[in-house]
Design brief:
The protein is an alpha/beta fold and about 130 residues long. It has helices at about 45-50, 75-90, 105-115; strands spanning about 1-5, 10-15, 30, 55-60, 95-100.
């Protein structure tokens, strides 16, 4: 179980699945789950994605194995996006494919929008993909 301290006393649990050829440098996909879920929501996608990509599946703060948040915690999109940006920085990831489900999609959109700013090199692609669920 890997964890990352995103702010004092707050640890994000995350999983990295990478079944690519060891001599390749794979692109990274960050999979962001929805409300009342955890990184396990993406489990069925791992065999399909991890042969071609390094797959990072974090538990959002307050969910899964990450640190529970107090009832009076002030949830903001900025706080959550900052958690994921710090996680990617700690893993040495400078470019990432973002995939989000439910609230994770909104978080991914905001994180992608930030990447377009002067501090980051990157871009976003918006595409709605109908799914069958996992």
């Amino acid at each position: 179980m890997a964890t990352f301290e995103t702010s004092p006393g707050v640890h994000l649990h995350y999983l990295v699945d990478d079944f690519t050829e060891p001599w390749n440098e794979p692109a990274t996909i960050l999979l962001l789950h929805g409300n009342a879920e955890s990184s396990r929501a993406w489990y069925a996608w791992v065999p399909l994605l991890a042969r071609r990509f390094r797959v990072v599946r974090p538990d959002m703060r307050g969910y899964g194995a990450s640190t529970p948040m107090s009832r009076d915690f002030k949830w903001t999109l900025d706080v959550i996006v900052d958690d994921y940006v710090r996680l990617m920085d700690s893993l040495g990831v400078h470019r990432v494919h973002l995939v989000g489900a439910k609230i994770g999609g909104i978080i991914a959109r905001d994180q992608g929008r930030r990447a377009l700013g002067p501090a980051h090199d990157g871009g976003t692609s918006r595409r709605a993909v109908p799914g069958r669920g996992c």
